Amino acid sequence: MEKVYIGKIASTHGIKGEIRIISNFPYKEKVFKIGNKLIIDNEEYTIKSYRVHKKFDMVTLNDYKDINEVLFLMKKNVYFNKQALILKDNEILDEDLVEFEVLTTKGKRGIIKEIFLASPKNKIIRVLIDKEILIPLNSPMIKEIDKEKRQLIIDLITGMDE
Fold first, then answer.
1. Which CATH class is domain 3-84?
2. Exposure string over 28-66, b if 16+ CB within 10 A, otherwise e
3. Distance CA 102, CA 55 (A)
4. Whole-structure pTM value
5. Taking 90 as the threshold, does the pLDDT of residue 117 lie above it?
6. Highest-confidence range of 15-24, 85-94, 98-107, by mean pLDDT?
7. What letter would DSSP give residue 87?
8. Lower CB count within 10 Å: N or C terminus of the chain?
9. Secondary structure class of 12 (helix, strand, coil)
């Protein structure tokens, strides 16, 4: 089973076994559903309740109803089964974009080497064509992402392609 990183358990909340998960995962609405299974330390836990509180995703897992029953989960990474994550044609995980081939509208070829956050909402792709180029993922320079061919088509602005 292939797993995708969702976030990290930050702390407990209250005394009834609720945990706080801090996550920047873009498809939370597909993951945090009652009945879905989260993976923590290679063990599956069923989501029994979910809500958002401030910047945290709040969940109760399995039949844990007391804070003392969930303390062993603190500071652990949370994953989700990638096969259970059903994405639309226009949706793609950041880690799947790495190693995509990059084609420019002027015929140059390159490869995506990395994706990172420049700010909480601004993702940057590091592209290696003839030199290293940084492009915002939400940039109008990105013309098409072809998941089948594993290609990204970009139209570089003047000066970036020299």
1. mainly beta
2. bebbbeeebebbbeeeebebbebeeeeebbbbbbeebee
3. 35
4. 0.84
5. no
6. 15-24
7. -
8. C
9. strand
